[in-house]
Request: fold
Amino acid sequence: MYTQGLDQKPEAENQADQAEKLKQFQARIDADEKIEPKDWMPAAYRKTLIRQISQHAHSEIVGMLPEGNWITRAPTLRRKAILLAKVQDEAGHGLYLYSAAETLGVSRDELVDQLLSGKAKYSSIFNYPTLSWADIGAIGWLVDGAAIMNQIPLCRCSYGPYARAMVRVCKEESFHQRQGFEIMLTLCRGTEEQRYMAQDALNRWWWPSLMMFGPSDVDSKHSAQSMAWKIKRFSNDELRQKFIDVTVPQAEHLGLKMPDPDLKWNETRGHYDCGEIDWQEFHDVLKGNGPCNRERLEARNTAHDNGAWVREAAVAYANKHNSGREAA
Amino acid sequence: MTKQDWPLYEIFIRSRSGLSHRHVGSLHAADAQMALDHARDLYTRRGEGVSIWAVASRDIVASDPAESAALFEPAEDKIYRHPTFYEVPEGVENL
Ligand SMILES: [Fe+2]
Ligand SMILES: [Fe+2]
Reply:
């Protein structure tokens, strides 16, 4: 760095050095070794992980909003306590993931700023409204169900802190999915009107849940490299197919009809075939034009602004306390 | 200290008495007491612990992965430090 003006040789050596490091890095990945924060890693690996982990963290944080909408209106005290616990878990997931992202050298404040300014992306699913109590059931069952499908392979991700955060997250997710399914089951065993609520919620949440797995493999830009780095273990379409295959029988058990006329079991493939996803809608929501994008960002910003005095007070208290200690 | 300076703490939890504290993750807090409070909410929501240690991350001294070989390789060829290195004749017991 300091002597590059002296001659050109060191730079050439550096390049060879770099290639050798890359080779060793890939060898470690291939041997299923975990990469830890202080280990050497290619800049692109670091960048990809920061992007992925922070988007994941933002999704957990924004994901509290659609469900938070129903906490005060949960039908019973039991449901209210469960929903509160579930939403609190999502906050926890966001925090585990922000911490994992920070080990890569990005600061928490930078990440929060990216979310609040609208620069960062988060999962498209959280830009849909929760219109009835049944939506809380559908979210737990389908959205957390899809999240689990996506997150279980991440427990084996090559980056240690991300993998460890995902182990914690996955342990907590299973309750989320079950409480959602239980809400659906209760509604489906209820009155005609309650069954209708459940069906209506499924109709609205099914397709957006399938979109959670991301663009189809043909259009997925980052997949191949992420697979080689073992950040990703399965392709978007593979995970989506797994989700469909496990969820369709659950809907049948509930006595609900999937909102897809093309959905049918394919004996030769051993999988369900399904209709085409509306990718235009997916890209619109991702670009910020979903039903609730603006509302979600506003809610996050308002909450952040309203909490400013608390953060300031905490800092003032800590400063006073520390200066007292230094003086003593 | 502004918001930017909320220090990072590493959190260690003893899951039950008789076991050592184990690193579970990290969090930001304005001071040590807040670190403990947040650690309780963040890492023990399902009875995962009976004791919490919070250590300011900046106070942790860590070895450098680039020096792993120098630090740890010398132990690798000292197989005589393991009991399996020694031959025990057939019939000899309690050894
Ligand atoms: Fe979550
Ligand atoms: Fe969840």
Remarks:
- Chain B has a mean pLDDT of 92.
- The beta strands of chain B are 8-14, 22-28, 51-56.
- Helices of chain B lie at 32-43, 68-76.
